[in-house]
Amino acid sequence: MEDGEARSEIRRMNPNESTVNRRRLTLRGLPLTFRWLFSFFLLTIGLGYLFALVYLFLLEVEPHRKMGLGLVEATIIKYYGNRGNTRLEGALNGVMAEMIGPAERAEVIRWIRDGATAEGYEKVRPLFEKNCVSCHSKDSGYAVAPLTTYEDVVRLAELDLGQSIRALSRVTHIHLFGMSFIFLLTGMIFALSEVNQYLRLAIIALPFIAIWMDIGSWWFTKYQPVFAYTVIIGGALMGAALAAQSGNYVAVHSIAVEYFREGRHDEAAALFEDSLNANLSTEHPDQSMVLLTRKVLPQAYIKAGQEAKAEVSLEEYLKLVPDDAPSLYNLAFIKHRKGACHDAVELYQLAAVFSKDAALSARTHYNMGECYRSLGMSDEALRSYREALRHAPGDSLILDRIGALEGPRPGP
Ligand code: HEC
User: What distance in angstroms lies between residue 104's CA and the mean position of ligand 1's atoms?
Assistant: First the structure.
């Protein structure tokens, strides 16, 4: 067989092509303008996420850390409240402690603990006026709660129940609307990637579930402090999901598939290798993606004419999926062309067992016949050709081979 002819043979007979050529809208299939747009969008979202973390740290974690509280305690205080205490008493013993002398502070606290009554207020009112209203009044210029009337003061002397329902409803609806748009867009972009379908479904759903979990637990924490843990886990999960949606070995794989389609087989093979290595070097390699890349890599090698590498990569793939008939056939064919007919026959036999496709079966038995013929095993060759004919009735090439082995037919 001529070299060029043999290669076109592999190409024509490569039954795996459908894996690569299936027509689904993918990232690489989009016009440059869209990919440009998506890149800027994802970059900006990434920055946004970073600053959200900084903001969260500065607003929620750092101030509490200064007061000697951990992240979980801080979350509990924000949503569940500090129920052993009122905000007023908390401030008097905490951030506002320096604004008032110890004797006066004790008097105010006694009044709070006696029920913060209107009658009692008349006695403590001068203390507020002396120490507090210079800042805590409408016209002080400070954006703080006024402490000028009994109503103002008593509001802060109620039990601290954390965020009010009104405040929670406000942040909840803003977050649900805002975040779902972000997830819709990142999810749409990720939907166009070429990761395994189930993984794609899972990763698309993950941030939505994470935000339900996160926001849901704000509400639960209001009534049950243990949910502070789910607030934190939900938030972390959301970050992880967003990060997973831009996993880069997936992108590299997709680009390689595009090169493969464009006929740039050498580049495709190199990129499939890159994608595989990037994936395998992660802490938890994405196995379905490993499988997909390992499956198409040999096809790229075959088309690029890199037969030695094709052989190695087919062997690698068959270790993972030992019953993949097209790969068995391809490997057999490479051995066959190298003249390793015994190995080739063994592999053709396996391919024949697992093949579910008539054309592949016909081809497999025909080539097996060719091997036997070159080994001088005519009986086996004849049997193989007959088997091939069963899968491809009337094929003239097969009939010729059978005719030649059976000898000239007796004339009428
Ligand atoms: C120098 C101005 C000033 C004076 C005087 C002052 N405060 Fe404040 N107060 C503030 C500022 C500013 C904040 C907001 C601080 C913050 O949120 O960290 C605040 C916050 C508070 C809070 C809310 C804390 C919370 O739980 O968010 C309470 C309650 C309070 N002050 C009570 C008092 C009382 C009682 C006095 C008098 C003994 C007083 N303050 C005196 C400036 C002042």
Answer: 16
| Residues linked to residue 309 through DSSP beta bridges, in sequence order | none
User: Do the domain assignments include residue 107?
Assistant: yes
Domain ranges, residue 183: 27-57+164-244
Residue with tokens 């794609």: 200
pTM to 2 decimal places: 0.39
C-alpha 346: how far from chain center = 40
Which CB contacts under 8 angstroms, 24+ apart, belong to 313-317?
none
* Atom 1 of ligand 1, nearest CA residue: 135
Answer yes or no: is 88 within a domain: yes
Residue 64 located in a structural domain:
no
> Amino acid identity, residue 10?
I
Contact 147, 157 (CB under 8 A): no
Confidence of residue 312 (pLDDT cuts 50, 70, 90): very high
- Measured CA to CA in angstroms, residue 15 lies from 3, 10, 12, 363 at distances of 20, 9, 8, 11
Ligand 1 centroid, distance to 156 Cα (angstroms): 11
Q: Residue 252 pLDDT > 90, yes or no? A: no
Highest mean pLDDT out of 10-24, 113-127, 155-169, 263-277: 113-127
> So what's the pLDDT on residue 384?
93
Is the confidence at residue 115, as pLDDT, over 80?
Answer: no
Residues with CB under 6 A from ligand 1: 87-88, 90-92, 95-96, 99-100, 131-132, 134-136, 142, 144, 156
Lowest mean per-residue pLDDT among 108-122, 162-176, 344-358: 162-176
Q: What is the pLDDT of residue 366?
A: 93
* 288 contacts 199 by C-beta, under 8 angstroms: yes
Which residue among 226, 244, 262 closes a domain? Answer: 244
Residues 214 and 95 in one domain: no
Query: Do 290 and 355 fall into the same domain?
Result: no
